Q: What sequence folds into this?
């Protein structure tokens, strides 16, 4: 039974000529799990917000949206508020109260539900989502994963029939993201809830979807069962950017061109590889032995660009320490990735390195000089720059172009050279078409790319990045990876905090796990990821029975093609 029907929908934002979405036709059945994917700025968020009239952006709209057979404009406000749930990308943007229990009750109170019913529903939902232990906590004390789970529970307590989610896992660590997607699957199967989710991280969500919808430049270019999407994209364009965003198993299958059923999950991908390359492990013994001999200490001839020596930090005197004797050494011209759970202290470590927060014990040394010895703004004058986790905080002007020009003016770059520099960085990051837009009118991924461009305008020798791939599609990550590797070749030192294991595995020189207030097990990616079960790539989980140190889809495909153990 059809629950949502969209007919010839076109929408254009104010002061823009090109529609954000155009001629969208989409049908969603009751109880269906639908994933919507596409490059940053393709119109996913716009489409989702138009599905819920309370969140519909201002602009020119044509076409029709029907919910349960009723035209959206004729849908009663109470029915729309209670039956169409929406979870935003940023957990902090949705929380409106100071206590967890009050947040759960807030929506029901606004619907005028009797108190005894509210108490019963809140208790049931808190039990279902495992919120009992932090039921009376303040919302600002929660981790990112807890906040997103609270947002989901606060929507589900209203008993919606449709749940719409806009990249809900973009700010979660790999374990929290997997748990969150598993919860969505459970809600879909046990309650018959209709789920519509826009997502870039497709490894977990793609295999459990009933329908996948691929968008490009505001249009739907492919729609169907997940196993069919790869073939549909091939019919359109085998070089389409969305290919690199598909799950690892699908990418490996398509690259090898073997006649078989397309695998979607890690389990299916492993079975596929073992079936067709069952003797590969024997041929890899020599290489595995050689890699096992690699030293766990990263050797570099350069002097350390950044050092933390036994650093301790807490936000307030009576609060627990966030950094507990943290030590690290990052060499010049190195890309160093820090991974770890939400709330572990990764962002705090970056803030301490950048001088935004001051440690009460220990030493921070930048280019051989203690951070306390940098006077005024000398640390930030073409030496060190930080990209914060929230890209919106970088923008202060009414257009991206003005923001970039403002940075160049601060650096006293002559006016005659500014436009050339803006043009160069815009082409590198693919943001030329965004220059004249207001930063707040951009999608999350577009904001991230523009914020990176502004930070790079300061020409730092040390770059600190806090979740730089958040909101980026797979193709944009490829562009960013090439950019970072190019900056490394030019001698730039980069420290990156990220939840993106695939990106760090392909980009970093060394990776480290942040846990319990300190850096653990820093090592080269091949050794770091091959020894982990959860903080590793999907490609590695699939291939480790054959090739333990293969991290990326490209590496797995190359080993398959070179393998002498292929089945005939």
A:
């Amino acid at each position: 039974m059809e629950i949502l029907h969209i007919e010839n929908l076109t929408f254009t934002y104010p002061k823009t000529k090109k529609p954000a979405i155009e001629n969208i036709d989409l049908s969603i059945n009751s109880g269906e799990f639908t994933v919507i994917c596409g490059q940053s700025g393709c119109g996913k968020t716009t489409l989702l917000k138009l599905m819920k009239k309370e969140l519909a952006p201002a602009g020119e709209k044509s076409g029709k949206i029907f919910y349960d057979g009723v035209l959206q404009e004729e849908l009663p406000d109470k029915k729309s508020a209670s039956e169409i749930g929406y979870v935003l990308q940023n957990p902090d943007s949705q929380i409106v109260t100071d206590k967890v229990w009050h947040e759960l009750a807030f929506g029901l109170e606004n619907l005028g539900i009797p108190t005894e019913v509210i108490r019963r529903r809140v208790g049931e939902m808190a039990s279902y989502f495992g919120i009992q232990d932090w039921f009376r906590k303040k919302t600002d004390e929660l981790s990112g994963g807890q906040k997103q789970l609270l947002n989901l529970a606060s929507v589900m307590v209203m008993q919606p029939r449709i749940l719409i989610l806009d990249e809900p896992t973009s700010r979660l660590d790999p374990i929290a993201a997997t748990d969150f997607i598993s919860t969505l699957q459970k809600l879909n199967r046990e309650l018959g809830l209709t789920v519509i989710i826009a997502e870039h991280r497709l490894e977990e969500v793609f295999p459990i979807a009933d329908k996948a919808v691929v968008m490009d430049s505001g249009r739907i270019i492919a729609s169907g069962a997940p196993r069919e999407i790869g073939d549909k994209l091939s019919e359109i364009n085998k070089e389409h950017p969305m290919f690199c965003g598909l799950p690892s198993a699908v990418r490996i299958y398509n690259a090898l061109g073997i006649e078989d059923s397309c695998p979607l999950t890690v389990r299916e991908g492993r079975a596929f590889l073992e079936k067709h390359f069952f003797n590969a492990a024997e041929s890899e013994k020599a290489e595995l032995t050689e890699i096992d001999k690699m030293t766990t200490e990263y050797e570099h001839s350069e002097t350390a660009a950044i050092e933390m020596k036994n650093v301790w930090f807490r936000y307030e005197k009576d609060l627990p320490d966030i950094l507990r004797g943290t030590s690290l050494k990052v060499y010049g011209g190195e890309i160093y990735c820090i991974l770890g759970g939400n709330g572990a202290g990764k962002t705090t470590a970056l803030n301490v390195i950048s001088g935004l927060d001051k440690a009460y014990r220990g030493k921070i040394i930048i280019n051989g000089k203690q951070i306390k010895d940098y006077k005024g703004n000398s640390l930030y004058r073409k030496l060190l720059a930080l990209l914060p986790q929230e890209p919106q905080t970088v923008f202060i002007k009414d257009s991206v172009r003005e923001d970039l020009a403002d940075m160049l003016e601060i650096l006293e770059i002559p006016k005659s050279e500014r436009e050339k520099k803006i043009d160069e960085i815009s082409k590198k990051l693919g943001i030329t078409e965004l220059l004249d837009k207001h930063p707040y009118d951009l999608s999350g991924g577009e904001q991230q790319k523009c914020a990176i461009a502004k930070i790079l305008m300061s020409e730092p020798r040390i770059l600190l990045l806090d979740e730089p791939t958040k909101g980026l599609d797979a193709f944009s990550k490829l562009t960013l990876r090439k950019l970072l590797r190019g900056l490394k070749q030019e001698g730039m030192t980069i420290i990156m905090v990220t939840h993106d294991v695939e990106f760090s595995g392909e980009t970093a020189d060394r990776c480290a796990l942040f846990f319990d207030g300190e850096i653990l097990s820093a090592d080269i990616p091949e050794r770091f990821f091959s020894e982990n079960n959860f903080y590793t790539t999907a490609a590695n989980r699939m291939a480790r029975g054959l090739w333990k140190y293969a991290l990326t889809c490209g590496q797995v495909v190359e080993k398959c093609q070179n393998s002498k153990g292929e089945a005939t």
User: Anything to note?
Assistant: The chain has a mean pLDDT of 88. The two ends are 46 Å apart (CA to CA). The CA atoms of residues 416 and 564 lie 59 Å apart.
